[in-house]
Write a structure and sequence with these properties.
Blueprint lengths: L21 H19 L3 H9 L5 H8 L6 E3 L22 E8 L2 E8 L10 H17 L3 E5 L10 H17 L5 E5 L2 E3 L4 H5 L2 E5 L4 E3 L3 H8 L5 H5 L1 H8 L4 E3 L2 H12 L26 H4 L10 H8 L5 E4 L7 E8 L2 E8 L10 H16 L4 E7 L6 H5 L2 H14 L4 E10 H6 L9 E4 L4 E3 L3 H8 L1 H6 L3 H16 L4 H4 L5 E2 L5 H11 L18
Parallel strand pairs: 3-4, 4-5, 5-7, 6-8, 7-9, 12-13, 13-14, 14-15, 14-16, 15-17
Antiparallel strand pairs: 1-2, 2-3, 10-11, 11-12
Helix pairs in contact: 4-5, 13-15, 17-19
Organism: Kitasatospora herbaricolor
InterPro entries: AccD/PCCB (IPR051047), AcCoA_carboxyl_beta (IPR034733), ClpP/crotonase-like_dom_sf (IPR029045), COA_CT_C (IPR011763), COA_CT_N (IPR011762)
Protein name: Acyl-CoA carboxylase subunit beta
């Protein structure tokens, strides 16, 4: 027992409790008021001006992007510290960019969003540091990054510090490339060096009528070249979606655009260490696709729309086409098979007979690289007569551009399945993920023709002298074409030599793909140890 007598403490001998000062409550109330002002932005007049241009405010855009109530803002009270040219009297909170994170379909996504109402969304030192911060957080958390771009470029009053801010963004774009999905949503102007950040990201979305991208604007173009052109014609959504290939997607309004961004995010993994999210589907894995027997003509010279084939094969006929309006002779799309995301590359016989050219090769190569970076299996639907001939193509570098697609496939370690629908001629057959460059499986329909060239061209080369010496060259040519086709181009020629794994009933294409992809789910194909390859440019 302690020798010290223990007594209960009495309330009246305790030190008096100081009441919480009213000042703290006042400060909390002031803080809440400040946050309300930040949320409201620079005022009703600026908001009305934004709306008058057909554009939403930055907060309205964020609300459309994220699941309701999930957005958390960081550095909302940040202000610039620049002086000169009157900037010291215009120190607005957020400094023209809202940054933070939220949930899209329940998964974390980071965002930076320009506020055109503040300094025209122009980038200064503090503005750039906020973007750097959120890019670093996205990389650390392993979550996608979305940029809602509506800014006037570098803040001229801040000089070189603004340019350095862009440099920090570009460096992070490259460092995060292939690590986390990066999406740029163009909702306003983007000129000069600022356009390079979207170009470094995985996907660019644009809105018709309100977003433009260009390195030099119409005035400079006219002054230097004498060409007269509008902003929209020079760098609008349709120009970049159909001519330059800069924009992967173009939409008529911001709401539709942001809804499609959400849809794209639902098909991408959070980072390169994860698989894309799987979703339950009511579309049976074993469903036969008898409609394919009527969609695809057996005659290799007849056209059809490959998108109808894709619709029949994938879950519920739903797919997201990337670069839909650019290089339309090849189709690149994200879809699901048995609830799991796949990337589809397909020749389009309805456009230029499905040949590969410079733009189609670039488009498909970029898509293959993206799928490989983010663990998305590849399905290649082949119906290709070869590479597009012509002086423009040769002088434009079809060799190196075609090599980009070849490099992308050869370097890809995700599951890869080739399906040869009809013709597959020459180097284009090899480039379209043939077994010889590493496809895990090659399936073919019973009308496939795999050869160096078409039977007519081959017969003219192989039997040139015999045809010339014949009494009736036309009859001799027809006979020899049939002979060549029957001996070297019949549907089972490649299968007999192990270059096609199986010749299948087209109606079984869906079920065979799903079964093969399930088998390949745990595929492990490590690349050689190296810093990086030197891919064709």
């Amino acid at each position: 027992m302690s020798i010290v007598e223990e007594r209960p403490l009495r309330e009246d001998v305790l030190p008096p409790v100081e009441p919480v000062p009213d000042e703290l409550r006042d400060r909390v109330a002031a803080l809440a008021g400040l946050h309300r002002l930040v949320q409201e932005g620079p005022g009703e007049r600026a908001t009305a001006t934004q709306h008058a241009k057909g554009k939403l405010t930055v907060r309205e855009r964020i609300a459309l992007l994220f699941d309701e109530g999930s957005f958390t803002e960081v550095e909302a009270l940040r202000r610039h510290r620049a002086t000169g040219f009157g900037l010291e009297h215009k120190r607005v909170h957020t400094d023209g960019v809202v940054t933070g994170w939220g949930a899209v379909h329940g998964r974390t996504v980071f965002v930076y969003a320009h506020d055109f109402r503040v300094f025209g969304g122009a980038l200064g030192e503090a503005h750039a540091e906020k973007i750097h911060k959120i890019m670093d957080l996205a990389a650390a958390a392993g979550a996608p990054l979305v940029g809602l771009c509506d800014g006037a470029g570098a803040r001229i009053q801040e000089g070189v510090t603004a340019l350095a801010g862009y440099g920090g963004i570009f460096r992070r774009n490259v460092r995060n490339s292939g690590v986390i999905p990066q999406i740029s949503v163009m909702l306003g102007p983007c000129a000069g060096g600022a356009a390079y950040s979207p170009a470094l990201t995985d996907f660019v979305f644009m809105v018709r009528g309100t977003s433009q991208m260009f390195i030099t604007g119409p005035d400079v173009v006219q002054a230097v070249t004498g060409e007269v052109i509008t902003q929209d014609a020079l760098g609008g959504a349709d120009a970049h979606a159909s001519s330059s290939g800069v924009a992967a997607f173009a939409y008529d309004d911001e709401r539709t655009c942001l809804e499609e961004v959400r849809y794209l995010l639902s098909m991408l993994p959070s980072n390169n260490r994860e698989l894309p999210p799987a979703e339950p589907t009511g579309d049976p894995a074993g469903r036969r696709v008898d409609a394919l027997l009527d969609i695809v003509p057996a005659d290799p010279s007849r056209s059809y729309d490959i998108r109808r084939v894709i619709e029949e094969i994938v879950d519920d006929g739903e797919y997201l086409q990337v670069h839909e309006a650019w290089a339309q002779n090849v189709v690149c799309a994200l879809a699901r098979l048995d609830g799991r995301v796949v990337g589809i590359v397909a020749n389009q016989p309805a456009v230029l007979a499905g040949v590969l050219d410079i733009h189609a090769s670039e488009k498909a190569a970029r898509f293959v690289q993206m799928c490989d970076a983010f663990n998305i299996p590849l399905v290649t639907l082949v119906d290709v007569p070869g590479f597009l001939p012509g002086v423009d193509q040769e002088h434009g570098g079809i060799i190196r551009h075609g090599a980009k697609l070849l490099y992308a496939y050869c370097n890809a370690t995700v599951p890869r399945i080739q399906v040869i629908l009809r013709k597959a001629y020459g180097g284009a057959y090899i480039v379209m993920d043939s077994r010889s460059i590493g496809a895990d499986l090659s399936l073919a329909w019973p009308v496939n023709e795999i050869a160096v060239m078409g039977a007519e061209g081959a017969a003219n080369v192989v039997f040139r002298r015999e045809i010339a010496a014949a009494d009736d060259p036309a009859v001799a040519r027809e006979r020899l074409v049939k002979e060549y086709r029957s001996e070297l181009m019949h549907p089972y020629y490649a299968a007999e030599r192990g270059l096609v794994d199986d010749v299948i009933d087209p109606a079984e294409t869906r079920s065979r793909l799903i079964g093969a992809l399930a088998m390949l789910r745990a595929k492990d194909a490590p690349l050689p140890s190296r810093k990086h390859g030197n891919q064709p440019q």
